[in-house]
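Whether sequence alone determines local backbone shape is best considered at the level of individual chains. In the encoding step, the backbone of a single protein was reduced to a row of integers, each denoting a local shape. For completeness, the protein is quoted in full, as a sequence line and a line of structure tokens.
***
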Amino acid sequence: MKAIGYKKNLPATDVNSLQDIEVETPKATGKDILVEVKAISVNPVDYKIRDNRPAPDGEWSIIGWDATGIVKEVGEDVSLFKVGDEVWYAGDLNRQGSNAQYQLVDERIVGKKPASLSFAEAAALPLTTLTAYEMLFHRLEVSKDDAN
């Protein structure tokens, strides 16, 4: 599959800081779903990870976590999604990112994409929505009753 990755933490201005690459398409097992990525968004965490987290020796790191797409394959323990479902998610920083044709994601951190949003519109929301939610309800302790 096609992806965008890095092997070295180079300055963003370096032509090799991110490269077009070919890697094997992963297989869904356990609670993982394989998502055909349709849209992604870029957040500050993307460049912070690229700047500060080295790729494993000799391997590519793929960044990008906020994404939307279509479920193409499900692991044997998946119960929340089926092939063909449109989904959105913020991903897992400890796994390969969404700057690829396909991404493995644990079904427990995925939601069904709202039908009223395009793939691009929905991809802009996962991390920013989580950040706003945490700010309002965890930091400022706004009552959920007051939010209605």
Q: What stands out?
A: Helices lie at 44-52, 119-123, 126-139, 144-147. The mean pLDDT is 94. Residues 126-139 form the longest helix (14 residues). The first strand starts at residue 2 and ends at 6.
